[in-house]
Amino acid sequence: NFNILSLSKFDTKEELHSNIIANLLSYSEEFLRLFLKQIGLGNQKEKFIINREHYIDENGWRIDIVLESKELIIGIEVKVYSGDRDNQLNDYYKYLKDKVQIMPKEDENE
To answer: DSSP letters along 21-51, please?
Structure first.
């Protein structure tokens, strides 16, 4: 498999991968549309805010990339040759689920 990042010896830099993905999602509507389609959300018409290094608690745990719209939140955890800490994805899931439940609905803002 060809990986252009391996040419520059950056192929193992998780932060670089996260930055590239976040920038593609932020600045390319086509990339975002294809990503949403790939994960089964191809009919989304909402605008998303894309955040990097989204802190979830006082311990410094953070989700690498978070896509957030008025009604939906998606967390992306990038792993390059590293494993999860204990309950990492479960903790992220609980955080994101709780965040969605407290997000104001559009009609509540009017």
So the answer is: HHHHHHH-HHHHHHHHHHTT-TT--S--EEE
SS3 3: coil
pTM of the shown model: 0.72
The answer to whether 20 touches 14, Cβ cutoff 8 Å, is no
DSSP 90: H
Per-residue pLDDT tens listing for the chain (110 residues) = 666 666 666 665 678 888 888 999 998 899 999 999 998 988 877 889 898 877 677 676 778 888 888 878 888 887 766 666 777 777 778 877 877 666 555 555 54
At residue 52, φ and ψ (nearest 5 deg) are: -105, 150
